[in-house]
Design brief:
The chain is α+β, with helices and mostly antiparallel strands and about 220 residues long. It folds into two domains: about 10-80, Arc Repressor Mutant, subunit A, CATH 1.10.10; about 100-215, Jelly Rolls (Sandwich), CATH 2.60.120.10. The chain has helices at about 10-15, 25-35, 35-55, 65-80, 100, 210-215; strands spanning about 115, 120-125, 130-140, 145-150, 150-165, 165-170, 175, 185-200, 200-205. Strands 1, 2, 3, 5, 6, 7 and 8 form a seven-stranded antiparallel sheet that branches. Helix 1 crosses helix 3 (about 35-55). The longest helix has 20 residues, at about 35-55. The protein starts with 9 loop residues before the first helix and ends with a helix. It binds zinc ion. Zinc ion (ZN) binds near residues 7, 32, 36 and 39. It comes from Azospirillum griseum. Pfam families: Cupin_7.
Length: about 220
């Protein structure tokens, strides 16, 4: 069975299944799941375990008004845990997996792509939570300035691919970067379209760092 070779890892899947990821990070994971039957099965198992644990908990008596407050909180926060279903006006661009379609109107070519560096454009998505979420479009053979992460960077490839010291990443593959990783990815000859969520600041370590930092406005 063919499928992605790079996965989010158990810790990220547990946080996803438990609703602990912010919307932007959950969107990246949900996009990977659209490509990856193995991780879909793992999340289904985690959901089953979580449901069984909830059923075993002894209910505590509720204080007066507690249920109303809880329901109001669930209403407010229900968008955060998992990406919402696409809106009726969502794009139907077949290159985008279903979890992403609710975030765009119209095809990819019609979006307002922002110049980031020669051969690289970005499109910010409005996903709530603490992550900065964007689609990145790289022409063939473009190198992203060397950087590391103070927080967490989750990236999933939609089309084409990129390579760094950790291997080659193709459609559906997910890269998880944190403070221990200093990398400078390079897009494949056919280019790369990917979705990235950055939680916390990127620290740029190469000579282009300051300039790139300003352009990205992290
Ligand atoms: Zn996977």
């Amino acid at each position: 069975m063919s499928g992605p070779s790079h996965h989010p890892g158990e810790a990220v899947l547990i946080d996803y299944a438990g609703g602990a990821l912010c919307e932007g990070a959950a969107l990246v994971v949900a996009t990977h799941l659209a490509f990856c039957p193995c991780c879909r099965d793992a999340v289904a198992d985690l959901d089953a375990v979580g449901g069984a644990l909830l059923e075993e908990l002894e209910p505590d008596p509720l204080a007066p008004g507690c249920l109303d407050a809880l329901m109001a909180r669930i209403d407010r926060e229900s968008i955060g845990a998992r990406p919402p279903h696409p809106a009726p006006t969502a794009t139907t661009d077949p290159r985008l997996p279903a979890p992403l379609r609710g975030y765009l109107r119209g095809p990819l070519e019609r979006q307002r792509w922002r110049f980031l560096q020669p051969g690289m454009r970005g499109l910010d998505l409005r996903a709530g939570g603490t992550a900065s979420v964007r689609l990145l479009r790289l022409a063939g053979g473009v190198r992203v300035p060397r950087h590391t992460h103070d927080g967490l960077e989750l990236t999933v490839v939609l089309e084409g691919g990129f390579s760094d010291a950790f291997g080659a990443f193709g459609p559906g593959d997910m890269a998880v970067g944190d403070g221990t990783i200093d990398h400078s990815p390079r897009s494949d000859p056919e280019g790369c379209l990917c979705l990235a969520a950055t939680i916390g600041a990127l620290r740029l370590t190469g000579p282009l760092g300051r300039w790139f930092n300003r352009v990205l406005a992290f």
